[in-house]
Amino acid sequence: MSRAGVYLIYGLAALALVAIGLFAGRFVLYLTMRVMLLAIFALGYNLLLGRTGLLSFGHGALYAAGAYGLGLFNLHVSHDPLLGLLVGVAFAALIALIIGFFCVRQTEIYFAMLTLAFGMMFFSLIWNLREVTGGDDGLIGISRAPLLGLPIGRDYQFYFLVLACFALAVWVIHRIRGSAFGLVLAGIRENHQRTSFAGIPVKNYRLAAFVVSGAFAGLAGSLATLLESNANPFSAHWSHSAEPVLVSLMGGLQTFSGPLVGSVIFVVLREVIERFTENWMLWFGVILLAIIMGLRGGVMGGLEKRLGRARAARPGGAS
Amino acid sequence: MLESFVHVCLAGLSKGMFIWLVASGLTLIFGVLGVLNFAHGSFYMLGAYFCFSLLSHLGHNFWLGLILGPLFVCLVGYVVERYFLRYVYHIDLPYQLLLTFAFVLIFDDLVKVVWGAGSIGSPSVAGLSGSVRILGRLFPSYSLFIILVGPLVALGLWGLLEKTWAGRIIRAASSDREMASALGVRVPALFTAVFVFGTWLGAVGGGLAVPYVGLLTPGMGESIIIDAFVVAVIGGLGSLKGAFLGALIIGLLSSFGTRFLPTFDMFLTFILMAIVLLWRPQGFFGEEAAR
Amino acid sequence: MAKKKMTRRDFFKAGLLTGAGACLGAGVLKPTGLWAAPAKVKGPVKIGYQAIMSGTLAGYGEFHKMGVDMAVDEINKKGGIAGAKVVVEYRDSTLKAPEAIKNARYFVDSWGADFLGGVDSSGQALALAPVMKQLGKPIIITHAATEKLNEIEVFQKGIKEVFRISSPTYQDGNAAAFVAKDLPAMKWATISPKYEYGYTCWSMFKNTLAKLKPGVQFVAESWAPFGTTDFRAHINTILDAKPDGLYSVEWAGELISMMKQAGQAGLFNKIKHVMLPVGAAMDVLEGLGKEMPDNIWISGRYFFQYPKDKRNTAWVASFVKRWKHYPAYVSETGYSSIYAFKQAVEAAGSKDAKKVIAALEGMKMQSPAGERVFRKQDHQAVYTVPWGLTAADPKYPFKVMGKMVVIPAQDFFNRPPFKGPESMPPFKK
Questions:
Q1: Which end of chain C lies in a sparser environment, N or C, as judged by fewer CB atoms within 10 Å?
Q2: Which of C130, C65, C70, C86 is nearest to C104 (CA)?
């Protein structure tokens, strides 16, 4: 696929998203927002997993940090959504910095288990600090005040805020991947010893990648809190941390668009399965199995392999 | 006070040994295959359900159920390894995790379809249903039995790995896969065998859980798998000795935590896990160069 | 099963449209047969119902469905709701708030539900309240027990769309205190779930009992995290405190595990008065079987032995005949929620949300659990559920209630405006 072809696809996708915002019914609107939030979460996450090669099981905690950051700010300080989002993202980045500081000392499975441990500590804090967090009831009654004078109370209004954040996230993450920073991260994944011999402080780069991906998790979490008008402790649980892993792997780790496509598949597939059966876990698991066994490298990875002949001459050119 | 202390200790020991029974299989599989098996909790669950089913069909002989039930689960384990897991050893670690995670979803719902969604209260074991009086307070005989079985299983595993021909091959393959292969060990077959054996250990843990927890529910594997993970990690991934010690520590920590520091229970476990990972990621008995 | 019916129905609908187009000419001229049948309410009445259907609590989803399916079949057999057929679709709530919201939005915005029902977790119910206001359709909660739902979301914040047909935490906390005041126990302790439900019930029990029986002491509390299977350390904590009474709002599988392990530890020999506010759940009684000791105080949101009237007896008999199971309390609340909608729609003469909400407010209905009245101010159904002492009965393979104590709901339900001691029991006559 040519560069123009890729731009065309992204252009069409953007157009489709705007069209959904203008014309779609309330449920499609809502589901699309859920897809976009998951995509922000997964795109940021894949900076760590796909790009840097670090598997984290603690990003649910960072998502929750964004959610509770915005939630507490909204309930106790100000209803301003923009400030709230900033607070949420900043809080998530701060927590990511603290957790990351410890976790980047290890790699591979040990890194995964460390992030799991810290993530679950954060979950335990949310669950037990009832006076602040509302315990398992979570934070409820979070409102959507106008953003710079524009009302976002209704779904079709709020949709465009989500879309704007989503577009911003896609653009920023794309830029990061192409930047010198992003290339160093890829270098770390390929061979961290060589990168380290080249005089690059590998741990600092890992930490930076962790914080950046945490900030996007926080953005997704705080937007979700505005969307659902509540923050809940299960968002910090490890099982929620598994979601971006799932999405990235389904879509394809080594492609930029993988997490995007994975998010669409994840949400739509679940929705479709639930219309036919209450045993959705069974069928979801079977399809997951098929994706892993049939398309190692995810849907986009598999697609690329098939479409890849023409592009093979120009590696790294597309998406 | 002494009676309370002793009983908190006993409760911690029985909980620890119970987790050990499940974590041993997880650890063995990780040590040899290098796969962190999320589905181990499902094997535990299947072990419990098969054991219970046989129990109700075989005239309530718990021991017969305990012997036969896990064999069915071994068959499931064989299919999982031979036809699925084998094909993802060479690709990224996350894909292996995801594969086993897919099986968790599938088995959780399959149990619901086959045995029903409701919880099943299970019968107690004839001969071990009573309690023993220790320092004026009753302690369940079955919990004592678990406390005894744990070290026996550990001893058995140690004997198998250290003293037998099969054990030497397993140890050789776990420390250097290529070398073992070069020396003529059929590594794929060995992996299958170890996976099935690990599955069997998990299923036996499930069978023993039937009277211990007193309850069967779909999704019952999820609560034990995290405990088993923590234990396997604290002991140093792949180290059976470490896992045994880790299980003792987690059991006692949770028991004393519940009694004396109730606000922090889960927090304590995970902070211990983090400290161990930062301080000695290779575990208590691991060497620096361990995987 | 309902799902299959739905897709088939959609298929029929498509066929009907083409058929209708073809028949229009003739049909308009001469309205006969189906065309002439007068339906007071147009189209099917669609109810979206969500409950927990996966994981360790999946059994509750099954129990919900048994009750709801029964109500739907009965109603449709007798001509539906005001001439319109009732259709129910189920979804797994998974106990997580975002999933509950997605389900509700799916039901209303995509499937076209007129009403919603179900919901097991308190967190989900609270998260759903503002969403229901936005969606503008009524929901009847059939299990989640938090009193914050009626006191804060409905009464204080004025969310009109939320109703609850099952009894709230008042049954677990306040009513238990009314029973406990007549027991000789003076020192109480608890093993309860380490989440809001557990904390709330215990504090309600303590406050009310302290008012009813000055001098009573609360000597120990041990909180068990969600998913606890090993209660031995908790049981030790309680035994150390040497209370005369144990109060526990553990429920479902965890209660079964706790009771078995407490029995093995000899707890019931040392503590004579044990109160289990949700011990009368069928999964617990059946799961424990003979291992449930005698003389344990149990209650629930409904118990099949009460009231001993014709309506309930007949209902229980037909339930057992159909499902080979005694009705769980969520079966009754699910069943009655469908009838509540039926009665409200028929009273309103329409399935319009606003009219149905108005009809539900203050509505009095007869149900297997007895007479229920939806309080106008907070949309909480007021009805009485007994407390009872467990006893063996040769008619049943599990323990049932022997001696029953019936405290009228009006005496222990918190009252509007839910502020100050006057809103909480005991009330002056």
A1: C
A2: C130
Of A91-95, B83-87, B277-281, C185-189, where does mean pLDDT reach its minimum? B277-281
pTM of full prediction above 0.95: no
The Cα–Cα gap between A26 and A23 comes to 9
- Give residue C26's pLDDT: 39
What whole-number distance in Å separates Cα of residue B51 and Cα of residue B63?
Answer: 9
Cα distance from A233 to chain C (closest Cα, Å)? 9
Task: State the pLDDT at residue B286.
Answer: 62
Return the residue matching tokens 């009655």.
C336
Answer whether A293 sits within 8 Å of B271, measured CB to CB: no
Residue C25 has pLDDT above 90, yes or no: no
Angle at C51 between CA C48 and CA C53, to 5 degrees: 120
C281-291 mean pLDDT: 92
Provide the shortest C-alpha distance from residue C53 to chain B (in Å). 8
Residue A171: CB atoms within 10 A of its CB come to 10
CATH number, domain of C254, equals 3.40.50.2300
What residues of chain B lie within 8 A of the CB of A246, using their CB?
Answer: 98, 101
DSSP annotation of A230 reads E
Amino acid type, A60: G
The structure tokens listed for A304 are 């690329």
Given a contact cutoff of 8 angstroms between Cβ atoms, the answer to whether B191 and B30 are in contact is no
Dihedral sign computed on CA atoms, order C52, C55, A217, A169: negative
Other beta carbons within 10 angstroms of residue B261's beta carbon come to: 12
Kindly report, residue by residue over C355-383, the tens digit of the pLDDT. 999 999 999 999 999 999 999 999 999 99
DSSP state of B149: H
Residue of A nearest to C51 (CA): A278
Q: Do B99 and A289 touch (CB under 8 A)?
A: yes
My answer on whether C54 and C147 are in the same domain is: yes
What does the pLDDT look like over A259-304, one tens digit per residue?
Answer: 999 999 999 999 999 988 888 889 999 998 888 888 766 677 777 6
The minimum CA-CA distance between A56 and chain B, rounded to whole Å, is 10
Dihedral angle computed from the Cα positions of residues B28, B30, B35 and B41, in that order, rounded to the nearest 10 degrees: 60
Tell me the pairing of strands C273-276 and C297-298. parallel
- CATH number for the domain spanning A301: value is 1.10.3470
- Residues C73, C155, single domain; the answer is yes
Which DSSP state fits C194?
S
Let me know whether C97 and C244 are in one domain.
Answer: no
Domains: count for chain C: 2
Give the pair of three-digit tokens for residue A5: 């072809």
Report, as an integer, the average pLDDT of B176-201. Answer: 85
Number of separate domains in chain A: 1
Q: Find out whether C209 and C162 touch, Cβ atoms under 8 Å.
A: no
Full residue range of the structural domain in which residue C254 is found: 171-306+384-423
Question: CA angle B73-B118-C367, nearest 5°?
Answer: 170
Closest CB to A55 among B94, B104, B264: B94
Please report which confidence band the pLDDT of residue C18 belongs to, taking 50, 70 and 90 as the band edges.
Answer: very low
Report the C-alpha gap between A214 and A45 in whole angstroms.
7
Q: What is the mean pLDDT of chain A?
A: 88
Assigned domain for C388 exists: yes
3-class DSSP assignment, residue C297: strand
Residue C359's SS3 state is: helix
Task: Specify the length of chain B in residues.
Answer: 291
Alpha-carbon gap, residue C312 to B172, rounded angstroms: 69
| Residue closest to A58 by CA, chosen among A125, A112, A136 | A112
Residues 6+ apart with CB under 8 A from C215: C186
Cα distances (Å, whole numbers) of residue B178 to B23, B173, B184, B186, C266:
27, 8, 10, 11, 56
Q: What is the spatial distance between Cα B68 and Cα B51, in angstroms, rounded to a whole number?
A: 7
- If you ran DSSP here, which 8-state letter would residue A147 be given? B
- Please say whether the dihedral angle defined by the alpha carbons of residues B4, B7, B8 and B9, taken in this order, is positive or negative: positive
